[in-house]
Amino acid sequence: MLKVGDKLPAGTLQEFIEVEGDGCSLGPNSFDIQQATAGKTIAIFALPGAFTPTCSAQHVPGYVEQADAFKAAGVDEIWCVSVNDAFVMGAWGRDQKTSGKVRMMADGSGEFAKATGLTLDLTARGMGVRSQRYSMLVVDGVVKSLNVEAPGKFEVSGADKLLEQARQLRA
Asked: Which residues form the active site (predicted)?
């Protein structure tokens, strides 16, 4: 399992791009994880699925609301990662009004979740293998803090805790 001090695993995530530009076309675009994190401080939070109750009512809104505070704490980008396709993540981002605040990154086949060792088997509930709920602060591709939730919990991966860790890192 991924831990503090580890480099993020190699691979790609996809993001649905609403407006063409910066070398990105409309629709799903793939991003190399190592290139996208190089030289940056990224706040990443992951969750089991788009449009699910806790994720939509608490997890994503907390990061959207705190986006400016994260920037002030030296965080370059906030990523929401879920085992969903880029179309679903794009629709969820529109629903949650994440534009310009949180990048909705799709891990469509769960390869990133598997590579981190942070998977959650929800097969019995008809959802397949998903990502655990967690948050992490990544600096230049290296994990500086990692907050993994117990199954069914939402206590340590919210925006407030990760923002506090970002501020401590900067101090």
From this structure: 55 (cysteine sulfenic acid (-soh) intermediate)
The overall pTM is greater than 0.90: yes
Helix boundaries (H) for the chain: 33-37, 53-54, 60-65, 67-72, 86-96, 111-116, 159-170
Which superfamily is assigned to 12-170 in CATH?
Answer: Glutaredoxin (3.40.30.10)
* pLDDT tens digit sequence for 27-62: 799 999 999 999 999 999 999 999 988 889 999 999
**Is 80 a known active-site residue?**
no
Question: What is the C-alpha to C-alpha distance for residues 44 and 157, in angstroms, rounded to an integer?
Answer: 10
- Extents of the domains making up the chain: 12-170
Run of H or E residues at 120:
strand 119-122
Q: Which of the following is catalytic: 43, 46, 55, 143?
A: 55
Buried b (16+ CB within 10 A) or exposed e, 109-136: ebebbbbbebbbeeeeeeeeebbbbbbb
